[in-house]
Amino acid sequence: MNVHSPNMSAVELSKQFADLYAAKHADLTSRLTAAPASTSSEFTPFLDAVHRDAVALEKQVNEAAGLYLPSYDQAKYMTGLRTMFARIEAARSSARATKKFAFKSRAKLGTTASVVASAAASAAATATPAASSASAAAATAAADADPSTVVVRDLPAGTSRVVSIATPSADVHVRGLTSRSAVAVVTSNDSDVTLRAAHISSITNSAVIIAATIDGSVLVDGLRDSVLVLAGCRQLRVHHAHNVVIAVRAVADPIIEDCDGVVVVPFAETPKVPGIQVIAAHPDRAACVKDFHWLVADAPSPHWRLAREDEGMQAVVMRAVDAVLANRESVSDEVVAALLALPAQSS
């Protein structure tokens, strides 16, 4: 939480936050530099602690951005944090480099969770784009070693899956969907069960529906001709999205970069998913997208737009969320078809 005097101006608050951010970022950097050996039993808990503190700093940046922080400063701080997260994931991946990578189903998370692993090692090897998804691949690889992370990836074309999560504060990674595939994520009806974060990458002509509360950030890297539905999150960052529809309720201004043809659909009403009160307590900023590749202050970005009321997109995404919550076993063909008609409708 950002603590400041109510009598301070926005400029003074920004300067104060700059000092706080610099100190915390320097601390994280020095801790990473002094990390224990990757073979040490202390290595993973150490990295987890650094990651938690980086996430907390990211949350402070988002809170400050919603109150007084200029867009330029937010972009600068987020760039520094992206580099920090990449270093953490690289360290995790490096530690696992000597271990044989096994593609197998993961253990269930909690009592009702189901996890879908890749169909085959060869499919995963050929499905990974070289450049734009390198960081996402590292994050997914690191996730395999984390028992609090659910990974859904490389499903066969046209496959639909529902992942149900009963353990609080889990991370979700959805990766490598193509050809009219769909993944829905739900949590148990316990109001305490929310997700910690979500990573969505390498999605083409498919739908991802997270009918759950994400009390943290969503990172998207690689989304084309697809639909992403997020019932509620604190922060959304989207990289390399083209001809997509994104329905979201967000606490902080969504950020896009290297994107075009993005249609944003704010929810007409708050989705009734467990734990949503932590998001609904804040104003919805879904319509306040910041495009880091469009810095012209007096002209709207050509890379994204809001859905028009006459397009009926709000009704389609709300029906999709309601259908997933009503049937936690599968995603119907009708729901998938209705969602995947939206990108073509918007282009």
Description:
With 347 residues, the protein is an alpha/beta fold. It has eight helices and eleven strands. Helix 7 runs antiparallel to helix 8 (333-346). The radius of gyration is 20 Å and the shape is globular. The relative contact order is 0.09.
Keywords:
single chain; alpha/beta; disordered N terminus; globular; 8 helices; 11 strands; 347 residues
Low-confidence stretches: 1-5, 98-136, 138-145
Query: What is the alpha-carbon Rg in Å?
Result: 20 Å
SSE pattern, N- to C-terminal: HHHHHEEEEEEEEEHEEHH
The profile of the biggest β sheet is: 11 strands, parallel
Report the span from N to C terminus.
41 Å
The residue fraction in helices comes out at: 25-40%
Q: Tell me the structural class.
A: alpha/beta
Mean pLDDT: 81
| Number of DSSP helical runs | 8
Strand portion: 25-35%
- List how many beta strands DSSP finds: 11
Task: Give the topology, please.
Layout: H1 10-33, H2 43-65, H3 71-95, H4 121-127, H5 134-143, E1 149-153, E2 160-165, E3 170-177, E4 182-187, E5 195-204, E6 207-224, E7 227-250, E8 255-257, E9 260-266, H6 277-280, E10 290-291, E11 304-306, H7 313-326, H8 333-346
Parallel strand pairs: 1-3, 2-4, 3-5, 4-6, 5-6, 6-7, 7-8, 7-9, 8-10, 9-11
Question: What is the compact description of this entry?
Answer:
The chain has 347 residues and is an alpha/beta fold.
